[in-house]
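Hi P.,

Sorry for the delay on this. The queue was packed all week, but I finally got your sequence through. Input first:
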Amino acid sequence: MKRYAKRKSHKVQIFFSLLVFILLCIIAGKLILNSDFTAFSLNSMTRHAATEDYGWNLILVNRDNYIPDDYEMTLTELSNGKKVDSRIYPELQEMFDDARAQGYGLFVREGYRTQEEQQQLLEEKMEAYRNEGKPKSEAKKLAEQWVAVPGTSEHQLGIAVDINADTTKSSSDSVYGWLAQNAHKYGFIKRYPSDKTDITGVINEPWHYRYVGKKVALEIYSMGICLEEYIDLLEEK
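Then the structure:
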């Protein structure tokens, strides 16, 4: 009788061991099949919510720092329907007025974007690369060099603008040249310079300008650094 009880107990142990093994296999299989989600989750663990420790104008949003859920702003609509954070509107208007007075034709091509709009842009860029025959993983990587992952785009802050030339009045090169030399006077910086791609993670964008305030913009312009480097200097103090 005791021998029978031992055999029964042993069978139960084997049964439960097999059940645990099967469950582990199922979980592992789901993780493998859903590798994109797994990678995103792991990446999310290394990212941090951006802070306004140095002021709203110096909030750092990039591939490592996402926009906090409670971030708020008041928007002002421009004449062409685009919107920007109301706090940058006076300096933005001043910059445009001065540029136009000097004969340059320019306009805000893009201002504030919602999370949904940012997601759509990224998906469209990925689809374009897929249509060129790129594998899904490569298409995603290439697309993210041009379009920020939703939640990490400065456009969602409302304090960044893409400025294009009105080509009926000015060439793109002339407008970009004027902005590169003068935008800091109005509190804006060229956010993604060509020589800072390894730091910002974004390719050269001569049209993308970000508001930081006149004092900071002058310092960044004079030192030839990007926002990430400026924040590092502040943290070292």
